[in-house]
Amino acid sequence: MSANSAFNEEKGGSSNVGEPEYGHDPASGGIFSSDYKRHDDLKEMLDSNKDSLKLEAMKRIVAMIARGKNASDLFPAVVKNVACKNIEVKKLVYVYLVRYAEEQQDLALLSISTFQRGLKDPNQLIRASALRVLSSIRVTIIVPIMMLAIKEAASDMSPYVRKTAAHAIPKLYSLDPDQKDCLIEVIEKLLADKTTLVAGSVVMAFEEVCPERIDLIHKNYRKLCNLLIDVEEWGQVVIINMLTRYARTQFLNPNMNESLLEEGGGEKAFYGSDGDDDEEEDKDEKDKKKAEAPSVVKRKPYVMDPDHRLLLRNTKPLLQSRNAAVVMAVAQLYFHLAPKAEVGVIAKALVRLMRSHSEVQYVVLQNVATMSIKRRGMFEPYLKSFYIRSTDPTQIKVLKLEVLTNLANETNISTILREFQTYIKSMDKDFVAATIQAIGRCATNIGEVRDTCLNGLVQLLSNRDELVVAESVVVIKKLLQMQPEQHSDIIKHMAKLTDNIQVPMARASILWLIGEYCEHVPKIAPDVLRKMAKTFTNEEDIVKLQIINLAAKLYLTNSKQTKLLTQYVLNLAKYDQNYDIRDRARFIRQLIVPTDKSGALSKYAKKLFLALKPAPVLESPFKDRDHFQLGSLSHLLNAKAGGYQELPDWPEAAPDPSVRNVEVPEWTKCSSREKRKEKKVEKPFYSDSEGESGPTESADSASDTASDSESGSEESGSGSESEESDQQSESGSEEDEEEEERKKKKEKIKAKKPVPESDSEQSSEEEGKKTESKNKPRRGGSDTESGEDKDSETESSESEEEESEEESEEETKKKKKATVSKPPSKPPKIDNKKEKKEMSLLDLDDFDPAPSLSQVTPLNNFLSSSLVTDLEGLSLTDNVLSPTTITPSGNLKTYELLHRITGEGLSVEYCFSRQPFSPDPHMVAVQIQFTNSAASEAKNLHIEDAKLQSGMRMKEFPEIETLPAGETVSVVMGIDFCDSTQAANFQLCTHTRKFFVSIQPPVGELMMPIFMTENEFKKEQGQLMGMNEITEKVTLGEKCHGEHAVIQRVTTAANLSRVPCGSDKECRFAGKTVTSGSLVLVSVVTKDNGAAQVTVNCEKMVIGTMLVKDILQTLTQ
Amino acid sequence: MIHSLFLVNSSGDIFLEKHWKSVVSRSVCDYFFEAQERASEPENVPPVIPTPHHYLISVLRHRIYFVAVIQSEVPPLFVIEFLHRVVDTFQDYFGVCTEAAIKDNVVVVYELLEEMLDNGFPLATESNILKELIKPPTILRTVVNTITGSTNVGEQLPTGQLSVVPWRRTGVKYTNNEAYFDVVEEIDAIIDKSGSTITAEIQGVIDACVKLTGMPDLTLSFMNPRLLDDVSFHPCVRFKRWEAERILSFIPPDGNFRLLSYHVSSQNLVAIPVYVKHNITFREGSSQGRFELTLGPKQTMGKGVEAVLVNSQLPRGVLNTNLNPSQGTYTFDPVTKLLTWDVGKINPQKLPSLKGSMSLQAGASKPDENPTINIQFKIQQSALSGLKVNRLDMYGEKYKPFKGIKYMTKAGKFQVRT
């Protein structure tokens, strides 16, 4: 056997690549391997009952794979063993499967069920490994299975399984990029994970799938910073690189007012010293500053964002990592993000890395070279660490030379030059050439040593090595060009060299020099030309060209002596083999020898040839490389590598820092809340309006008050407004007291908030989990929002409590009804829900509608039959907090524009009121509702700096001058979305702050209803066939049977009106898009078994497709 | 991240390939071979080579090129560091990392690579975890395996991967509990012609071999921790404690590991333990050159200098040498022009010297470069920087471990210019 295999080894070696189809397997026994029945022995072994035989076979197969041999024909035999009990066999089968599944997709499917079973195993490690292999099988058919598995694993109990899920995300993404949206949801979920095990992997997935979604990081930023030190080293690298990019978009340039540093130095030190401890104070300070002078940003002393500081502080210890990649990552972070004064700390660590393997050295030196141009001072103390040893590889030597050159300045140049002197004697000639160039660069950069360098280089001209001499000539040429007058003796010296030097580039350089400065060497120049003319035919092309050049220049300055020589050279050149030279000769002859035909140009020949040429600038090849993120592959190659994420420039003004604020969880608030409740009993009446600030309020009032108050609301609105303001002033004194006390409270809470960061995070996570578990089938992305929502609800509902006391009997009755109709399930939610209902009740029965609200009263097509059903619906929506669940028709969805926490007390919501916007019929009316839950009043609410897509327009609402604390106000603005669902981005400004917000319309809001008869509808539909028609089949959701339900849902999803129809199996709707007025026709045909067919006809296909999707979604739920 | 890995031996054959994503044809290595041809020396192959569709990042260790294929932006150091980690792991498993060792253990290698990367992203690189997953082959185990048909793959699942101390495996048991620490310092220096020090720095490491039962928590304190101002730690070291108290506190991995490495830079005065007197001259016109070399100890704190080895790359013009060592043996390779003198121990009473003549190519002009002399040596029982361990304490376990600390100084890149 052993002899056999040895024999085969040889054979395998020889027939290596020659005949891959017979893929001679050296491992298999020679006896069995005949050409047409290859691998039969292996198949037999795999089919046997003995594990040891199977294992042996698998080992041979893996050895074949390792050698790059084709073993794919064994696929069926191997896959059978996927469920083998023996762990090693199983593992090797996995290896095989992952390698060949792509080629044998159908057979690979046989193994899937094994992994699916594994996914449900009680042991976390088995679950993880099943997911790992499953996701590594690159078979497109199983994408849905993978997606499901990943989703499930992402909420697994075990962090290790979650980590594996994070790893699986990029795999699935590369297999099917269409899954991006779903995967982003999973990423978002995993980003919120608290364990260090997951953090690195999920950020990796984030970088591969959606690096542009920087907004997903906001909430997790502080957590990532704090976890960083405990994450495994590879994850650290990825996270640090990502955070560098993040910080560049979110913070201000710490070096932006360098010049101001001297003036405001004292002040700065002050901020710096206590910046960490009293963050809050710091922030206040900053806010004030911003408010004072947003326009003179440049003038105000820079204060570092505490989050920016957090990042710098938490990454610094990682400079001590044993992993060079981590150290480099931190170094680049500091280089790109830290204030100048602090960047220095990285130098020491980078120098330490230079002791590592030469590949590490190579990369580090490349980066040091770039850094040393920008921040020379940083590496100056470590100059000696860059001295070159004769044993360094050449590429390292050259890089060290580069760094040394960059570090050279007046003070250290003498030591550096002394070093260079020893380098010139090195045996490594490429290195010597590089040294000579380095000397040249030092000479250009530092005027004092120019002459010394030049002299040194001239000495090198007598070196025996031709390469050295040639390089020196080239460098001297460049140096002389800077000040030729003083150095005619050097030129003379070089002229003599033409006899000896053979390197073409050097000869060419000398000739060029002599030609260029022939006036300085009037005697020698013609002689050189004479010599060159003699050897012309034997010269290299580059030298020939320079000879012609020299001849031409001499002819122009000294035609008496050189006329004949020039003619001779030009004649030789005329018959040269190289066409470039022939062309050049012809051209020059025409130019310098005046004939009748040569026109005006020859007059200027002298100017042309002997123009003053600018001296070449010798600069580092590493200059400006720092526009690439340091440490990246792109930086190393100085070219953009695929998938490179551009390092963004610092923003002009800092984006809203509060986006990173993490929610204070409910339960920590409890204690303070109770206190507040007591307090609030004596609250003056004006705070009523706060009750109306509930998130669902606008919707509620819409459903009820629409019909009766539509006409008269306008007047009554203004009237009641003034009334209210009267009340306010009356209760002014009371309010002041109350205000103060409240402030104190708030301050307390505030002070509590930022300190135990990790604590609050943890709890916030818990909260997140709670909400997660509560309402699973929610749309992605609303996770955090809803969490906040609830929070704000609880707050507003507190104020409800006491109001409810004033409620009438009738109301309380109803309330009871409502509570009964849906009993609370979970204890902690109880009061929440109850309050919720109270609120809705209050709103419904509040027959004196909120003044500001009445301005806009949404249209209501389908009034619900009874108040009770309405209530039921309301309570449902409130609890589930999902906009897509059953909503009575009139209910308008409210969207959050600015959350209370982010807005520092100001919360803003918007809804699409579905009313025509009177100032401009082509705009969509958006109703915006401001609620001020802060302690102080907000002033000058207005819109600024709208960034709209081309074609989009916006009609801003009039500025709201003041919004007292606890008040709510609604306004209407119009946006022309141009029939697209692109978001309108703008800044919402108060007198102190600016918030970046955006409004994105659902497609259904981009249209308005029109009325049509059935015939008209059919006619129009007939015209919108083919591409303009989209038909989808759908199974109606359980609660969605019946005409009424269908109508309700469709009209909720889109702003359409019903078209009468003869058949009760079909519902038809019509509308037109707001901007362009294109028709939108929808018909829903229901069948008995709950199936339905939705048809949308619309000229705008994009809108059509999106609308179909939306309608399908609402119908299935 | 890392798409594929190819191992290339010194004669340019690909002897192992592993793919973590779709298969990349081995023809991609042609670009690497091209670069290899262009480079004069094996170590001059650029570590990063761009090709039209991929990037090749390679490291050279033990005369094997580890060529990683990547497709998009990734920090090059990330890949390089990982490849070195792979080599370290192989070395840890097989004792040596040679082509033969890898070929013999190709299945273990494959299993290791499979565990170390998932979809090209590092998964388990800690040797403790890997050893739990895949047992390193030993002679005994190989014999047992062939007889019983059992495997190298660990039967139990790697629980270490899940714990808070991922670097330590669980359930460690020893009958003799021992912890050894080696403080090894290497001195890098460049000495110029006249014998003065141009640059000298110390690179130190503390390597540990800890075989302790259970979950011991160790603290190590130094007499003079101020020396360590530029340190890098194993992830097990609690950084906060070091910052505050300058004490190393850690739960050690099981087995051999590098606890920390440090750097004492040239700003601090570094004592040079040996001196070299040399006289290497070539005369113009003559075909002979003189060669004289004498070594002597200097500032060794009373310890002997051992294992001294001198080598020097002589100029190309030197044909042969005729030298006479006072002790040890010397060799000169006329092809590579490498002179090696194995000195052994330096006796302060009778300094070792190497004297004689070199014959040069007749008629050629005198070489204008001077050779540099590289010296290796060892000094036992002393750390050149003066670093001293104060005490080692163990918490968390009841037994009394055996503790040992060893110091050693070595020459790193110690060069004398002539």
Summarize the structure.
Chain A has 1117 residues and is α+β, with helices and mostly antiparallel strands.
Task: Present the secondary structure layout.
The complex is a heterodimer of chains A (1117) and B (418).
Chain A: H1 2-14, H2 40-47, H3 51-66, H4 75-79, H5 87-100, H6 105-118, H7 124-136, H8 143-154, H9 159-175, H10 180-191, H11 196-209, H12 221-227, H13 233-250, H14 260-263, H15 265-274, H16 279-292, H17 306-315, H18 324-337, H19 340-343, H20 345-353, H21 358-374, H22 376-379, H23 394-407, H24 413-424, H25 429-445, H26 450-460, H27 466-480, H28 488-497, H29 504-516, H30 524-535, H31 541-557, H32 559-574, H33 579-592, H34 605-609, H35 633-637, H36 666-680, H37 688-691, H38 697-709, H39 713-730, H40 732-752, H41 757-774, H42 783-806, H43 809-821, H44 830-845, H45 851-854, H46 867-880, E1 894-898, E2 906-916, E3 924-932, E4 938-947, E5 953-955, E6 960-963, E7 968-976, E8 984-989, E9 994-999, E10 1007-1009, H47 1014-1023, E11 1029-1035, H48 1043-1053, E12 1057-1059, E13 1066-1073, E14 1079-1086, E15 1091-1098, H49 1101-1116
Antiparallel strand pairs in A: 1-2, 2-3, 3-7, 4-6, 4-8, 5-7, 8-9, 10-13, 11-15, 12-13, 13-14, 14-15
Chain B: E1 2-8, E2 14-19, H1 29-38, E3 48-50, E4 55-61, E5 64-70, H2 76-94, H3 99-104, H4 106-116, E6 117-118, E7 121-122, H5 127-133, H6 139-148, E8 178-191, E9 197-211, E10 217-222, E11 231-233, H7 239-245, E12 247-250, E13 255-264, E14 274-282, E15 288-297, E16 305-313, E17 318-325, E18 329-333, E19 338-344, E20 353-360, E21 372-380, E22 389-395, E23 402-417
Parallel strand pairs in B: 8-23
Antiparallel strand pairs in B: 1-2, 1-5, 3-4, 4-5, 6-7, 8-9, 9-13, 10-12, 10-22, 11-13, 14-15, 15-20, 16-19, 16-21, 17-20, 18-19, 21-23
